[in-house]
Design brief:
Number of domains: 4
Helix content: 40-55%
Order of helices and strands: HHEEHEEEHHEHEEHEEHEE
Radius of gyration: 36 Å
CATH superfamily of the largest domain: Histidine kinase-like ATPase, C-terminal domain
Length: about 325
């Protein structure tokens, strides 16, 4: 507040100069205040734009201040949480069973840290390595297994009748090994289909033949509900898919408490697809999330390639494999004009 006595002591000219200066100072204060408001608004707008940009990024992003505290982060980063121990150095880190590539860069007083989820890339690399190893092993054991198969067939014709069931089990085991070798090589090389018309009766014959080679202990009833029609596709590969689905059904019945079970194989269609359905009365699926992952299986039999390969074959036929409740797998095959 201005001292009135001091102001009265000033001359008229000094009073005018003082008041003009005061007015200028007040006006300048308003200018500074408005500039501050504009600067604050610009800062907030820039902060908003920056937040939207990092929110758009698929990786987790943190911006840390000079004290290492979080200044800015996107929703992916919030979900992941900031782990100073894991994010301290550049490189790979394992967090909650996921693999992340960690990068950090210092910009002035701020530090930007990013965590990119590379779990799928690592999984692909591991699958490629496993596939190469599996293909090599399959090539190495194919010839010896073929020789054993020939010897078993020869042996069956000369042994006593009480030994023949043993030889028959050997032949079934060899058939399973040969089937695994074939599936492994097909999976690693990639699926190439050869389409041609075939009757569903031929597919049923192929499936029934495979059942005769498969070992199981319970009483299983197989019900085929195939119409008397022809479809177009690769009979050998479609038969392989149906065998995979059928064997899974048999194994589910083996794992169930009941001493018998039913497997029903049917076909229905719409304008675009044929649908081959395999349903069973066996145990429920324990983990649907890993069903189609190669080299992963919850069963004691097999190598975990059956459903993964079946998915490739279905895709090559323009279709897919779906799961229906209460317990069924459905293979769709695109119709060909």
């Amino acid at each position: 507040m201005i001292d009135k006595k001091l102001l009265d002591q000033l001359s008229t000219e000094d009073k005018k100069l003082f008041l003009d200066t005061l007015d200028t100072l007040i006006n300048q204060t308003y200018v500074v205040e408005n500039e501050y408001k504009d600067l604050k608004a610009s800062y907030e707008a820039l902060h908003k734009i920056l937040s939207e940009i990092i929110e758009f990024l698929p990786t987790a992003i943190w911006v840390l201040d000079e004290h290492g505290k979080i200044f800015l982060q996107n929703s992916t980063a919030k979900t992941l949480g900031f782990d100073y121990q894991s994010f301290r150095n550049n490189g790979e880190a394992e967090i909650d069973d996921r693999s992340y590539l960690i990068k950090s860069v210092k910009l002035g007083a701020k530090t930007i840290v990013s965590a990119t989820d590379i779990t799928e890339q690592k999984r692909t690399q591991r699958l490629a390595s496993m596939g190469q190893m599996a293909a090599h092993l399959a090539h190495e054991i194919r010839n010896p297994v073929g020789s054993v198969a020939i010897l078993a067939s020869t042996l069956q014709g000369v042994v006593a009748d009480n030994i023949k069931p043993v030889v028959e089990e050997i032949k079934k085991s060899i058939w399973r090994v040969e089937r695994i070798i074939k599936a492994t090589l097909l999976f690693t090389k990639g699926v190439a289909i050869k389409k041609s018309p075939f009757e569903l009766k031929r597919l049923e014959e192929e499936i029934r033949s495979s059942i005769s080679h498969y070992s199981y202990s319970k009483d299983v009833e197989f019900i085929f509900l195939f119409p008397d029609i022809s479809i177009i596709g690769d009979l050998e590969l479609i038969s392989m898919v149906m065998q995979n689905l059928l064997f899974n059904a048999i194994d589910a019945i083996e794992d169930a408490k009941e001493e018998n079970g039913v497997v029903r194989i049917s076909l229905f269609e719409d304008e675009q697809f044929y649908f081959l359905k395999v349903e069973d009365s066996g145990a429920p699926i324990s983990d649907k999330s890993m069903l189609f992952d190669p080299f992963k299986t919850t069963k004691t039999k097999g190598n975990g390639l059956g459903l993964a390969l079946s998915l490739q074959i279905a895709a090559a036929h323009g279709g897919q494999i779906t799961i229906e409740e209460p317990k069924a797998f459905v293979l769709s095959i695109a119709k060909v004009a």
